[in-house]
Input
Amino acid sequence: MKIGVYGLGRFGRFWASLLAGEQGRVYGYSRSPKKDLPEEIVPVDEAEILQVDALFLCVSISAFEEVIRGIAPRLRKGTVVFDTCSVKSYPAEVMDTYLGDQIESIATHPMFGPDSGRDGVEGLPMVMSPVRSSTRTFEYWRDFFARLGPQVLELSPDEHDHQAAYTQGVTHFIGRVLQGMHLEESPIATTGYN
Output
């Protein structure tokens, strides 16, 4: 099976390397040339990345619809397309709208990235939602990801967005408050404080 990652920014490179752990190598495409790619990422042009069996879109939410509209008519019949955006309802709607009946799509949100996953992704949450996929395809990929180590959770796009807004909103709010406090270092500080 040929797996491709469209978008090789910081997260895209991390994601491609993670997927390569199961596959051995992954094809990667970026609109801006990337240097120093890990050896497991095989750089290809856009035409070639659209011929893979499974295509992971690691692009910003602001570019997502433009990318989907641009690639949809050129995707190979039978391709499975995944988003990796941090919200699910919008990308699921875009994939459902623009990808034809011959393309399967699954919304995913790895709840980790290059920093939180640098020591491995074992047990970290990953959300999956079928958009337009057969049960067989969805189960194959759910099991694929489970073998990589994350705890796979099946949520609807709306449920994901509701829970993510709460948990990530609280986290970012507290982070901003703490950042604004200009906390000082202490020789007796605990790990949690630091």
User: Anything to note?
Assistant: The chain has six helices and eight strands.
